[in-house]
């Protein structure tokens, strides 16, 4: 290749900016929809808490299960770049269909199925593109995934503040159309800068466009949407599918492990363990979309006050924006802490971070339990700020590590599948988390104030106890995780001297 041709190649930063932008706007759409969906089902459509939670359980669970299929399509059939693009277009139409469902209720299940299937095509392949752009540079890859995760929170913060306001003032259709329009902006940027991303992806992306693989994926997508529509409409079928997905992932992981070389197995064992731990966190995380949103609607004062002065008013849906706000505030603090500990040779392992994360989750639900059980009228909004802060930092210590775990320990040829597998586990956990929320479901005419707060006391208490038990269990598993990590390091040949690990972080550059 000539030097002029090389000079025309985009930089990795330029290539990454395209994925970053479309991911930011895709998350803008998804989390904007999430912020208003529970309230839309309960307030606009008149569903009971139980019915709404069950429907959301199926929808969210499927949304995170379908990436297994999308990862396979990207790895083996169409290529990650083209599959991601197909998913983005599907999401545009999915949010638009959800807006129309306000007038044509028959579209509701179809719209939710379209969003779930579109997310399945988009999510694992966008993350896979980031890996491929920075392949061979672990330090740059870690930084890229940090920024990539940040894009989720930038997009979701803005949309979670905007869409509840639009729903309150102009109706739910305006909120859902805004979600669709945001992703259109991301697609326009993609096509404007597509030459920066054209070289990225796999060999399947590099060749001439072929109609047969495209039609194969499109046909599979259409079939998936049809099947998901029926599943979301039927709680019994949804429950059966979650069991099937659980058994399937256990089988596929076992098959992958048995077919792997001996040197790769310690890393896979550690990957499986840490992924399961991040899965457990999602049961608590899913309360933000379900029980905590309904708790905020009925039992929380939306005014944030200092000394009797109201700083800002948050609606029930807007409280969910506290999660990404805390993520953005805590991310640089944690990054600086990690760097400082690494410089001192005391870097925390991923397993230790998981333990700290579950400790914070436990503390968060302890605060909600105490506040709900002692409520005299409406619970202070500052309780939500503090509780969301604790479980959001916990997210950085648990769920946010998921992509890094896969990128670090999984071979490139299985990356799409393992990304999809991780989302499948998260989907199962979110399904379970939505059903857990039904332990505080209101029956009959919902109450408000202290009576409504009392309804959530048993749920928050039980989640606190569950967090306490899980934290203790993870502490007991620390020696096992340490041993597997050491075996992986030795098997990978990262350190030439078996019993001595360097005191300086691996990311140190010349």
CATH class: Mainly Alpha
Termini separation comes to 28 Å
Low-confidence stretches: 1-7, 495-510
Beta-strand percentage range: under 5%
The largest beta-sheet arranges its strands as 1-2
Can you tell me the number of structural domains? 1
Report the major sheet.
Answer: 2 strands, antiparallel
Order of helices and strands: HHHHHHHHHHHHHHEEHHHHHHH
Tally of strands:
2
Cα-atom radius of gyration = 23 Å
Number of helices: 21
Can you describe what's shown?
- This protein has 510 residues and is mainly α.
- It has one domain (10-492): MFS general substrate transporter like domains (Growth Hormone, Chain: A).
- It contains 21 helices and two strands.
- A two-stranded antiparallel ribbon has the order 1-2.
- Strand 1 and strand 2 form a beta hairpin.
- Helix 2 runs parallel beside helix 7 (138-170), helix 4 runs antiparallel to helix 19 and helix 7 (138-170) packs antiparallel against helix 18.
- The radius of gyration is 23 Å and the shape is globular.
């Amino acid at each position: 290749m000539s030097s002029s041709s090389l000079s025309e190649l985009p930089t990795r930063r330029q290539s990454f900016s395209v994925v970053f932008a479309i991911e930011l706007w895709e998350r803008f759409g998804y989390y904007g929809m999430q912020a208003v969906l529970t309230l839309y089902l309960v307030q606009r459509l008149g569903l009971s808490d139980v019915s709404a939670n069950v429907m959301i359980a199926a929808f969210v669970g499927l949304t995170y299960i379908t990436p297994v299929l999308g990862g396979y399509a990207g790895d083996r059939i169409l290529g990650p770049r083209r599959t991601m693009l197909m998913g983005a277009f599907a999401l545009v139409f999915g949010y638009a269909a959800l807006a129309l469902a306000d007038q044509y209720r028959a579209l509701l299940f179809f719209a939710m199925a379209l969003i779930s299937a579109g997310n399945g095509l988009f999510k694992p392949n966008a993350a896979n593109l980031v890996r491929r752009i920075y392949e061979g540079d672990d330090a740059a890859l870690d930084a890229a995934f940090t920024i990539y995760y940040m894009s989720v929170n930038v997009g979701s913060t803005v949309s979670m503040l905007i869409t509840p306001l639009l729903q309150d003032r102009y109706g739910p259709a305006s909120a859902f159309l805004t979600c669709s329009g945001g992703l259109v902006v991301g697609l326009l940027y993609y096509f404007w800068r597509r030459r920066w991303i054209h070289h990225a992806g796999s060999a399947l992306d590099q060749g001439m466009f072929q109609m047969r693989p495209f039609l194969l994926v499109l046909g599979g997508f259409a079939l998936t949407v049809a099947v998901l529509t029926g599943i979301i409409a039927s709680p019994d079928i949804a429950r059966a599918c979650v069991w099937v997905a659980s058994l399937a992932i256990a089988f596929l992981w076992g098959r992958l492990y048995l077919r792997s070389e001996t040197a790769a197995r310690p890393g896979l064992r550690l990957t499986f363990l840490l992924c399961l731990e991040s899965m457990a966190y999602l049961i608590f995380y899913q309360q933000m979309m379900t029980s905590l949103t309904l708790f905020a609607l009925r039992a929380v004062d939306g005014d944030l006050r200092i000394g009797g002065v109201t700083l800002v008013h948050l609606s029930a849906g807007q409280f969910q924006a506290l999660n990404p706000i805390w993520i953005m505030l805590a991310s640089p603090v944690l990054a600086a802490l990690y760097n400082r500990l690494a410089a001192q040779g005391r870097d925390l392992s991923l397993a230790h971070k998981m333990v700290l994360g579950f400790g914070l989750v436990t503390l968060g639900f302890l605060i909600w339990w105490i506040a709900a059980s002692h409520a005299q009228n409406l619970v202070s909004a500052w309780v939500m700020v503090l509780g969301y802060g604790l479980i959001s930092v916990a997210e950085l210590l648990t769920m946010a590590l998921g992509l890094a775990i896969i990128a670090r320990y999984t071979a490139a040829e299985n990356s799409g599948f393992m990304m999809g597998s991780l989302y499948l586990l998260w989907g199962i956990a979110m399904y379970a988390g939505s059903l857990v929320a039904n332990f505080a479901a209101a029956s009959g005419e919902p109450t408000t104030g202290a009576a409504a707060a009392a309804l959530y006391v048993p749920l928050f208490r039980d989640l606190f106890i569950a967090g306490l038990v899980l934290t203790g269990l993870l502490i007991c598993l620390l020696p096992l995780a340490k041993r597997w990590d050491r075996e992986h390091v030795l098997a990978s040949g990262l350190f030439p001297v078996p019993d001595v690990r360097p005191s300086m972080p691996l990311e140190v550059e010349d």
